[in-house]
Amino acid sequence: MLWSQILLERSHVGKWVRDSLSKIIANRPEDPIQFLASYFESIREKGNRVVRAHQVLVLTHHSRLAFEDNVATAYQILSTPSSSKHSFGLTGSAYKELLRTILRFVPETIEDDVMKKISPRDHEFIPLDVFHHGILTAFVLKDFLQQSEGLHACLDSQSNGQVPQILCEAVLQELKESVTTTSTEPISILQAGARLNEAQILGCLEEAETEAKSSLTGSMSSDEFIRHASDIFLEKVKPIR
């Protein structure tokens, strides 16, 4: 064996390369270079298990089949004890830290509300199914809020960040009715929001505009609209206790 090969084996570089190629094949990322950068970043962050778990979870979108494997890997990372003094298993404190890492760009009030539904007590041990439910809920919520922001932008014909309140309420009601008919699975809630088609939106807008002409109405900002949309989402989320 060549010295260079021996060096690669001893430094684990060869294993990392093989593992990274396996991950690319499994996840099929749109941007392989960025994917590799994130993967090797997760290896570098050995000292922080929450960071490593988060890096694994963001390797692929939650709608991809490979996400299920990544959730299991993240659970394993957090469940493995950092020393012989600790027992195997994931505690609520580490789990909540990971959830807040995923939700760090979500408005604080919305983050607090979702955490009340899906976060456990610090001392509790978290089984894989509870972990999966919470992690998926957090990622789906982020997508749902992006959808909601896009809906408000579509209504903002003046491009000033404000939309007549009556129009917003009409679309939010349509969104609520669409979500109400779904199961409590996070993906189902997201799909219900995505199924709001152009005809449905135009129909409720025409009715709202007719009513708006005959009455005074205020306006609603994007932040307010997203807040109301998040309430609709959270009503359907199954609490863990």
TrEMBL record:
Indicate the segments forming the Tubulin polyglutamylase complex subunit 1-like C-terminal domain, all copies: 45-238
- Domain of life of the source: Eukaryota
Write down the InterPro entries for this protein, in alphabetical order: DD_TPGS1 (IPR047502), TPGS1 (IPR039235), TPGS1_C (IPR057632)
Q: What is this protein called?
A: Tubulin polyglutamylase complex subunit 1-like C-terminal domain-containing protein
